[in-house]
Task: inverse folding
């Protein structure tokens, strides 16, 4: 059974059981560079329009050599775009956000729509060029190379809500959502249209899934009132998925959504999402049995292994016990691909990364 068949069976999109639970992971640049050198595999970086997404869609050759069962690709920065850092080490990305390196992820220093108030402010904002030179070069090459062996995900993370708050600022956006300020819905619709066009290009190239990414939760609760979500955001995502399904009825819509978002999972399924990621552990409502019992009939799950504390600090025995628990509960009857809940950072040793992959495969056999 190849990896493509394994993931399709795990997601219940082909009849029968996979031979084992499929495995997926992404790593930070330091770990990619380490393993690339150790294994003698060149690391190809696809620089994304939003910098942190780069690590989702890069180093596919390396990751599949290490044991990943999927290939993840996405849009690249334009061939015409070059980062120019100022004296403070800040730079403008293609969205015209002023960026800096944070301790782990990039941070926005200045928001291009920080003063938006009206629909006209959104209409006057110029998104990056959809069909800029080189935008889909890596995606096209990866589909051609791996389509028959691996399921290929097209990543449009930082999709609508996250893109919107990176353009205007989180605090401003949340206040303006509550106040129903004129620009808010036009902003969501504009972000959605931009990412829909990116997704449609990836579908044209031949990806099997479209991976959205927006966080609606904190470690304890939702970021916004559920009714606000339902009135302002739910219709936007529903329309996007409908358009992707019109382009390819077999496309798999996947949502990456961090935080304690169990109260929204029925809405998320009604929007059209079929796979839920990352099933962030250790937040309210996300106990494996609760997630499986309450929502296992709605979704396949992808993720659930804690990369904040367990991967860097737990013992091998603790890690193996957690892997066994997640496989036994979330994988019961199918519907699970195991992975860390986020990108593995450099507080995790290379040896620990290899141990994680080894333990997933050791314990992943499906009876």
Result:
């Amino acid at each position: 059974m190849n990896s493509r068949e394994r993931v399709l069976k795990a997601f219940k999109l082909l009849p029968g059981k996979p031979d084992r639970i499929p495995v997926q992971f992404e790593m930070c640049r330091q770990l990619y560079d380490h393993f690339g050198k150790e294994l003698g595999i060149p690391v190809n970086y696809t620089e994304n329009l939003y910098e942190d997404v780069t690590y989702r869609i890069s180093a596919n050759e390396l990751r599949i050599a290490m044991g990943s069962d999927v290939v993840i690709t996405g849009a690249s920065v334009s061939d015409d775009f070059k980062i120019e850092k100022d004296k403070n080490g800040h730079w403008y990305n293609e969205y015209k956000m002023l960026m800096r390196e944070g301790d782990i992820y990039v941070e926005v220093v200045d928001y291009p729509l920080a003063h938006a108030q009206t629909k006209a402010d959104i209409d006057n904002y110029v998104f990056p060029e959809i069909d800029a030179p080189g935008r889909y070069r890596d995606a096209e090459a990866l589909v051609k190379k791996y389509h028959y062996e691996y399921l290929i995900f097209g990543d449009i993370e930082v999709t609508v809500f996250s893109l919107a708050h990176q353009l205007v600022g989180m605090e401003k956006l949340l206040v303006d959502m509550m106040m129903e300020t004129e620009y808010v819905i036009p902003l969501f619709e504009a972000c959605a249209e931009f990412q829909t066009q990116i997704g449609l290009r990836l579908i044209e190239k031949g990806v099997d899934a479209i991976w959205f990414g927006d966080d609606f939760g904190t470690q304890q609760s939702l970021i916004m009132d559920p009714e606000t979500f339902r009135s302002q955001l739910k219709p936007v995502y529903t329309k996007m998925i409908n358009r992707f399904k019109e382009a390819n009825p077999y496309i798999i819509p996947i949502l990456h959504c961090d935080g304690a978002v169990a109260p929204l999972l029925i809405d998320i399924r009604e929007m059209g999402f079929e796979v839920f990621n990352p099933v962030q552990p250790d937040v309210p409502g996300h106990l494996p049995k609760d997630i499986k019992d309450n929502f296992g009939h709605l979704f396949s799950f992808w993720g659930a292994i804690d990369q904040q504390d367990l991967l860097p600090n737990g013992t091998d025995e603790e890690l193996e016990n957690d892997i066994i628990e997640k496989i036994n509960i979330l994988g019961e009857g199918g519907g699970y691909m195991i992975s860390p809940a986020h990108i593995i950072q450099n507080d995790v040793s290379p040896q620990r990364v290899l141990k994680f992959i080894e333990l997933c495969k050791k314990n992943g056999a499906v009876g």
